[in-house]
Design a protein that fits this description.
Distance between the termini: 71 Å
Structural class: alpha/beta
Oligomer: single chain
Number of strands: 28
Radius of gyration: 26 Å
Strand content: 15-25%
């Protein structure tokens, strides 16, 4: 086996991790592996004036190692979790935060962050109490200046007097002196390596010509950061070294670009200073609003720590996830995927909602992770991984169905190239006609269903309507006319044939004649299939595979094993993750599907999703399951069917009512699929916050809003009462606006 060591970052342009456009034009979900002799040409991507031209640095502290496998493919060496085939919690040291312990020997710690003005002591104290009563074990408070730092003393003392010893965390940006002051009274300090030592808040695009220039700034950082390290060590105060994808320093960008590797090295620079002074009471975080970037950054961080023997705990979070089900889905995809890998010791679900409301989904995720680790879910006996590269992102794509000469209907649209949604329906729903079509996301024109941007691509029937059920059969015919696939178990079709249906067969039924009326075949798998059975699937003409994991199996791990077997067999059939839930509520569905199916989609394995629910909660409707499925695909950076919002969770820095303004913007712009809008209370993390957005609405000063296109500010100081309309005009100026369609109302 030949081993190659390269000091270059895996150049994975972040555009490869964004959803595909509505028109279907792929922005390329491909990763580029740097050649062993290729220089590390990091590219700065901040706004600002560039004064020097970057050249190739000579060395880097973080390296990546690859080994050639038997197929001649470079694969990453080492590991990022204890076992890729089983959930085993990564062993860490214990970090003490007041009376709370963080680490692998302790339960996963739940935390949140206040949204009130820190200077308003009474309001902040009341909010911390609400959070603690809701189950928060730690609460973070923004501390942007000396006035806030002085208020923190009173906040802490008031809480203690009221009997609340909940550890408090100071959120620090740009303010080393403020951090020193608040370390006297709080239990933990969060520092952002991208801006801790930058008191200017200019976000300049500075490129470095030599290693000497690069190292000189590191020396300046050490000089500024060391007093805080010594203070925290002296007082037993904990620290989080929290890298944010949107706020990497110009120095880091010039060498690494805005990549996960840059995020890791940015954090390691600060950690090395801590270790130099024998201070180890800290945790790491690698946050991004893009779950794919976030997951890759944490996996890379864990891998690099394994290589050098570090065992610091991990704080997990998807930053600026937004609100409602979308925010919970994004968080579930990112946090849940890592928890099922055995990574994560404390978590925060960042929502644009009241801070105490974050604790409920946070608790569900923490419980999911603890249960998976306690039961060591996975594939017993393990399996070898030769396909998945955790250091870069590539998506496996299946071959879409093709039309045959003798087809009576068009089968080319039963799946979607950017990710498919299948919906399980009953014959009773079929018979309702118009309400049923709407539940599938179809438009209506003179009573006839038409495909819309978020219409289910195919449906799954557990039974075929009887000949007397005229309305139900008519619904099937109308769906087939607009290209919606009708999937029915082969056993059902044998007794009740259905013309132009897709027969769902087991592996053992492959090769048998299709039942009457069936024009295509799909295969259902349960995760326990052998290599020989997967070869049979690969050799068949199945249009899709539905993985409905057996109750005894772990979906994440058994599907990873299937991905290996399918790759070995050369199977190009599209994979649909069939998530079956017999109980639970809406939150359970979001958390479980996001963690389990989302965890596979961020691995790059999966072409679509089917969420089937047979529980008793009437709130779990067909429409909810469909929209949740589309939200899962969009959150996994696959199919974009609605406006994407990158919305911060609010804090004491916020310059307007974030929840109210976000709701106003969503109401007026929610019909723009393919458009991403960032709504930020401030720009504390720099223009990099706009990395995942086409347009930005940002608090610039009290009562004033700045508007961005990408990461460039284009309009400044707009009165807040005029800003939403100005945003709409900006979208129109950039040819991204469409008028909202008026839906036909049934008679």
């Amino acid at each position: 086996t030949r081993t190659t060591t390269t000091t270059t970052t895996t150049r994975m342009m972040m555009s490869a991790m964004t959803p595909k456009s509505v028109a279907g034009t792929s922005v390329g979900a491909r990763a580029h592996h740097a050649a062993p002799d290729e220089g590390p040409r990091g590219r700065a991507r901040r706004s600002g004036t560039t004064t020097r031209r970057v050249v190739q640095p000579r060395a880097q502290a973080v390296s990546q190692e690859y080994a050639m496998n038997e197929n001649g493919v470079l694969m990453p060496t080492g590991k990022y979790c204890v076992n890729h085939a089983e959930t085993v919690r990564r062993k860490t040291r214990t970090v003490n935060v007041g009376n709370v312990k963080i680490g692998s020997e302790h339960p996963i710690v739940k935390q949140t962050m206040t949204t009130s003005d820190t200077r308003d002591v009474a309001k902040t104290v009341a909010e911390v109490i609400r959070c603690a009563d809701a189950g928060a074990e730690m609460v973070r408070i923004t501390v942007q200046g000396m006035q806030e730092a002085k208020a923190c003393v009173e906040i802490k003392n008031t809480l203690v007097a009221k009997g609340y010893n909940t550890p408090l965390i100071a959120d620090i940006h740009f303010a080393p002196k403020v951090a020193l002051l608040v370390a006297e009274c709080f239990d933990k300090i969060r520092v952002n390596p991208g801006n801790f030592a930058d008191g200017r808040k200019k976000f300049e695009n500075i490129l470095y010509e030599t290693d000497e220039e690069y190292e000189a700034e590191l020396a300046e950082i050490e000089e500024v950061f060391t007093p805080l390290v010594l203070k925290c060590k002296e007082r037993g105060v904990a620290m989080r070294i929290g890298t944010n994808h949107g706020s990497l320093s110009a120095r880091t960008l010039s060498r690494f670009g805005d990549t996960p590797m840059g995020m890791v090295e940015s954090a390691f620079e600060f950690a090395r200073i801590c270790r130099k002074h024998d201070y180890h009471n800290f945790v790491f975080s690698m946050k991004a609003s893009n779950p794919l970037v976030m997951v890759q950054a944490y996996r890379l961080l864990s891998h690099e720590m394994y290589k050098i023997g570090w065992d610091y705990p991990l704080h997990l979070g998807v930053t600026e996830a937004g609100e409602g089900e979308d925010g919970r889905m994004k968080s579930s995809i990112g946090i849940g995927a890592l928890l099922l890998d055995g990574l994560g010791d404390t978590i925060r679900v960042s929502l644009t909602e009241a801070s105490e409301l974050e604790i409920e989904p946070c608790t569900r995720l923490a419980n999911l992770g603890m249960k998976a680790c306690a039961e060591n879910i996975g594939v017993k006996g393990g399996f070898e991984e030769t396909v998945r590269d955790f250091k870069s992102f590539t998506r496996r794509t299946g071959d879409l169905p093709v039309q045959k000469a003798d087809d009576a209907i068009d089968f080319r649209n039963i799946l979607h190239r950017d990710g498919s949604v299948l919906t399980a329906v009953s014959t009773k729903e079929l018979a309702s006609e118009d309400p049923f079509y709407r539940s599938l996301g179809a438009k209506l024109a003179v009573g006839m269903p038409l495909r819309d941007i978020a219409t289910s691509d195919s449906i799954l029937l557990s039974e075929v309507p009887a000949a007397s059920e005229e309305k139900a059969l008519r619904s099937i015919r109308r769906l087939q006319e607009i290209g919606v696939g009708i999937v029915v178990p082969a056993a059902v079709l044998k007794t009740t044939p259905l013309a132009n249906s897709i027969a769902l067969v087991t592996v053992d039924e492959i090769g048998a004649p299709l039942p009457g009326g069936a024009a295509r075949m799909a295969v259902t798998l349960d995760g326990t299939e052998t290599a020989a059975q997967i070869k049979a699937v690969a050799a068949s003409d199945a249009v899709m595979v539905l993985i409905k994991t057996a109750s005894s199996e772990s979906r994440l791990h058994s599907s990873r094993r299937l991905a290996e077997e399918m790759a070995k067999a050369g199977a190009k059939v599209p994979v649909i993750h069939h998530m079956f839930m017999a109980a639970g509520d809406k939150s359970d569905i979001v958390i479980q599907s996001g963690s389990q199916v989302g965890g596979l989609l961020v691995d790059g394995f999966g072409d679509g999703v089917l969420i089937q629910y047979t529980g008793s909660d009437a709130a779990v409707t067909t429409d909810f399951l469909r929209t949740t499925s589309f939200g899962l695909l969009q959150g996994s950076r696959m199919r974009n069917t609605k406006t994407e919002y990158v919305s911060c969770p609010s804090c004491g820095r916020t310059l307007f009512d974030l929840q109210e303004v976000t709701a106003q913007i969503q109401e007026k712009t929610g019909h723009l699929p393919g458009v991403a809008i960032a709504v930020m209370g401030c720009i504390v993390n720099g223009p990099g916050e706009m990395a995942d957005a086409d347009f930005g609405y940002v608090g610039g000063a009290p009562g004033k809003i700045d508007l961005y296109v990408g990461k460039e500010v284009v309009k400044k100081g707009i009165p807040s009462e005029e800003a939403t309309e100005a945003l709409i005009e900006l979208i129109k100026e950039n040819d991204r606006w469409v008028e909202k369609e008026v839906e036909e109302v049934s008679a």
